[in-house]
Design a protein that fits this description.
The complex is a heterodimer of chains A (about 350) and B (about 350). Chain A is an all-alpha fold and about 350 residues long. Chain A has a single domain, classed as ABC transporter involved in vitamin B12 uptake, BtuC (Orthogonal Bundle). Chain A is about 75% helix and about 0% strand. Chain A has a two-stranded antiparallel ribbon with strand order 1-4. Chain A has a two-stranded antiparallel sheet with strand order 2-3. In chain A, strand 2 and strand 3 form a beta hairpin. The longest helix of chain A has 30 residues. Chain A is globular. Chain B is α/β, with parallel strands linked by helices and about 350 residues long. Chain B has two domains: about 120 residues, Rossmann fold (3-Layer(aba) Sandwich), CATH 3.40.50; about 130 residues, Response regulator (Rossmann fold, 3-Layer(aba) Sandwich). Helix content of chain B is about 40%, strand content about 15%. Chain B contains eleven helices and twelve strands. In chain B, strand 1, helix 2 and strand 2 form a beta-alpha-beta unit. In chain B, helix 2 packs parallel to helix 10, helix 5 packs parallel to helix 6 and helix 7 crosses helix 8. Chain B starts with a helix and ends in a 7-residue tail after the last helix. The chains are: A mainly alpha (about 350), B alpha/beta (about 350). At the A-B interface, helix 2, helix 4, helix 13, helix 15 and helix 16 of A face helix 1, strand 2, helix 3 and helix 4 of B.
């Protein structure tokens, strides 16, 4: 299992002039990572589970607050599904975002891509085609639009040399602009009954969009933790130069990461279209910030090189549960935003302390 | 040393946990907010028998983010209206322009089995499925301002009158300019692609037509102060002489008035729209070209609460013969001038 993907051992940070202590640390961490790969129970606790432990505690505390303040209204099955349905859309986007951030990038255009996908798959012509043939036409269109936008982002960043912040900022503006042009700023209503029925169905009492969220999370976890693609992502994000020297196609890999995120946006768009039975250029406003926040409090390093799908899922669940507890207790959204900000700052401050202490020890 | 990381990781949990505890500290219920303006925050109407306390009811209310003076006032006046009734407990889930989140807020109301839901959707069509779900669950939905695309999704709909706003503004302009058939009339619209803007402009045009006037210059802004300033500056440049000007929205009107001031123009009179408090103060003082404004009530949510209460407590609108609360309430768009401004200024919104 301990293959020589060198980048994994240098997950975070500056390359030159760290001194020997830093190197020792790296070797240790590399060993840690390797041990995790081979499934050592203790090592596992020290890494993945350890990292997520804080989040689990936070979520449990949050649930406890929900139970105390709202009792059965919080703990009911219906309410759990309400939380999960809310989490599903932003969750799928956040999982894609985890890959891009782990790979050293950032994507500000996810909300706009989601809007464009939702509009494109609900245009009159798409719906007519879907009614004539099969509702899955809408699914294909949404996924293609999402992946296509991701491809443009990726190409601009990897081969055009545009920094991710600017490239995706441009996509943010133009994708939403195009969505407005296509929809003429009107809300497009879905008439394809088969599409609505399929997406709003339940599997063993669990709404389909929640099932999709769980599937995407599971696939994302396997992809990041159990495949070469995942290890390459860590390597590219941790130290692109080392990754290149190790023989990884850094540029091609970067493009793939953005396509993957675009695809996730397409999936999220379908979820939102089915939930609202509309496509609109206003869908997904500010989702980029929600997704980045969830990824960051989950423990993925914003500078790249370390990522955790489990952490991201917890990050999303913490924010959506927070929203739910606030709604149940009739508290204002302003207080909630304030607390959300505090949680983000606390999580990032801890992360930074973690990183700098590692540098010193 | 190898244990250090896990300690730090636990630290993350600790801080997050503290944040959660902080949340717990602020989830107790406030005492009823001070209710110095108890008459629903809306009218000074005499307390009728319908206001007598009935069964205790819970109403859920959800509205978009208050990113505009008018919208801010919607939530504020709704809360005031509910606070005026000791038998109404209001659950407010305000402030989101994310339909996904607004849907989940309404789902929470459904789970809670509230007695009624007053809903001003961010997007009427997008909120229709969840409103239908609420109606199916036996919870009456009162749809405010932005209509659902399925009439079955609401028991009562409270709407403003955009076309009527245009008619009121046009009629007022006709009254002022009726004897001058070649007078120059200008119009500054809101966001042009919105149906509500098109309705307002159509009403204005139709009303002007009845006295042989037409819109000579028309520009569109975007409901913001900045947009109003830009649009008005362009308009004033294009039209060297104007007799009357209608501006669709008093929030953007702040910018329009600034542009007029900058250009030093005062040969015309201006009519506003929506009815903000500072527009009304300006009309009251008579210190600018703004002579009148047309109201688009920001108290629709408050009316929604009152109707929801009647509905659940099985009362009727006592001045009507009907036994049941009506299906649709469309509000009138009155013209506010110096003569009647005192009547309206208390319910105007601060932009």
């Amino acid at each position: 299992m301990s293959e020589s993907v060198g980048g994994v051992s240098t997950p975070e940070g500056p390359t030159a002039g760290d001194g020997p202590t830093r190197d020792t640390e790296r070797v240790e961490r590399a060993a840690e990572e390797t041990a995790r790969d081979s499934g050592g129970a203790l090592a596992l606790l020290q890494t993945t589970a350890g990292r997520s432990l804080g989040l689990v505690v936070a979520l449990i505390l949050l649930c406890a607050v929900g139970m105390i303040t709202a009792g059965d209204r919080f703990a009911s099955y219906d309410n759990m599904m309400t939380i999960l349905r809310l989490a599903a859309t932003i969750g799928v986007v956040s999982i894609g975002m985890t890959f891009v951030i782990t790979g050293g990038g950032i994507d500000l255009s996810v909300g706009a891509i989601l809007a464009l996908s939702s509009v494109w798959c609900t245009t009159l012509s798409t719906q007519t085609m879907a009614e004539d043939t099969h509702w899955s036409v809408m699914v294909v269109v949404a996924l293609l639009v999402g992946a296509g936008c991701g491809l443009i982002n990726g190409l601009l960043i990897a081969y055009g040399g545009v920094v991710p912040f600017i490239a995706t900022l441009a996509m943010l503006a133009s994708a939403r602009g195009l969505a407005e042009i296509i929809s003429n700023r009107r809300t497009q209503i879905v008439h394809v009954q088969a599409f609505k029925d399929s997406f709003n169905s339940e599997i063993f009492g669990i709404p389909l969009i929640v099932v999709i969220f769980v599937l995407v999370a599971a696939i994302g976890w396997v992809l990041l933790n159990r495949t070469t693609f995942g290890r390459r992502t860590l390597a590219v994000g941790g130290n692109p130069e080392a990754a290149r020297l190790a023989g990884i196609h850094v540029k091609r890999h970067t493009v793939l990461l953005y396509v993957l995120l675009g695809l996730c946006c397409g999936i999220a768009a379908l979820m939102l279209v089915s939930r609202t039975t509309t496509g609109s250029s206003t869908h997904g406003t500010l989702y980029e910030l929600d997704a980045i926040a969830a990824v960051v409090i989950g423990g993925t390093l914003l500078s790249g090189g370390r990522g955790t799908i489990v952490g991201t899922v917890f990050g999303v669940l913490i924010f959506t549960t927070l929203t739910n507890v606030f709604t149940l207790n009739n508290r204002s959204i302003s207080e909630q935003s304030l607390l959300k900000g505090l949680i983000i700052v606390a999580a990032v401050l801890l992360q930074q302390r973690l990183a700098s202490r590692k540098g010193n020890t | 040393m190898s244990l250090l990381p896990i300690k730090k990781k636990l630290g993350t949990g600790l801080v997050a946990g503290l944040a959660v505890l902080a949340l717990a500290a602020c989830t107790s219920n406030d005492p009823k907010s001070n209710s110095d303006n108890l008459a629903g925050g809306t009218t000074a109407a005499a307390q009728g028998s319908n206001d007598a306390a009935g069964d205790k009811i819970v109403i859920g209310f959800s509205a978009p983010a208050a990113d505009h003076g008018w919208m801010g006032s919607i939530t504020e006046s709704t809360k005031k209206a509910a606070a005026a009734y000791p038998d109404v407990e209001l659950h407010v889930a305000e402030g989101t322009n994310d339909v996904n989140l607004q849907i989940s807020q309404v789902e929470t109301f459904i789970n809670d089995k509230v007695d009624a839901i007053v809903l001003l959707p961010f997007d009427g069509a997008a909120m229709t499925p969840v409103a239908l779900k609420a109606m199916d669950a036996g919870i009456p939905v009162i749809n405010v301002d932005r209509e659902f695309d399925d009439p079955n999704a609401a028991r009562v709909t409270v709407l403003g009158d955009n076309y009527g706003m245009g008619v009121s503004a046009g009629t007022y302009v006709c009254q002022q300019l009726g004897d001058k058939p070649d007078a120059v009339v200008a119009e500054i619209a809101g966001i042009d692609s919105l149906p509500l803007t098109q309705d307002r402009s159509q009403g204005f045009k139709d009303a002007l037509g009845t006295c042989g006037l037409n819109v000579d210059n028309r520009v569109a802004a975007d409901f913001t102060v900045q947009g109003g300033e830009t649009a008005a500056a362009n308009l004033l440049q294009a039209a060297p002489h104007i007799d009357a000007l209608w501006n669709h929205d008093d929030d953007q009107g702040v910018g329009v008035l600034a542009a007029i001031e900058n250009a030093g123009r005062d040969e015309f009179f201006m009519v506003g729209g929506a009815g903000s408090a500072n527009a009304m103060r300006s009309i009251q003082a008579g210190d600018s070209v703004l002579q009148a404004t047309v109201i688009y009530p920001s108290t629709q949510g408050a009316d929604g609460i009152k109707l929801a209460r009647l509905l659940v407590q099985q009362k009727a609108l006592s001045d009507l013969v009907e036994v049941e609360v009506p299906r649709l309430v469309q509000l009138y768009a009155p013209v506010v001038t110096k003569d009647n401004v005192d009547q309206y200024i208390d319910t105007a919104f601060e932009s």
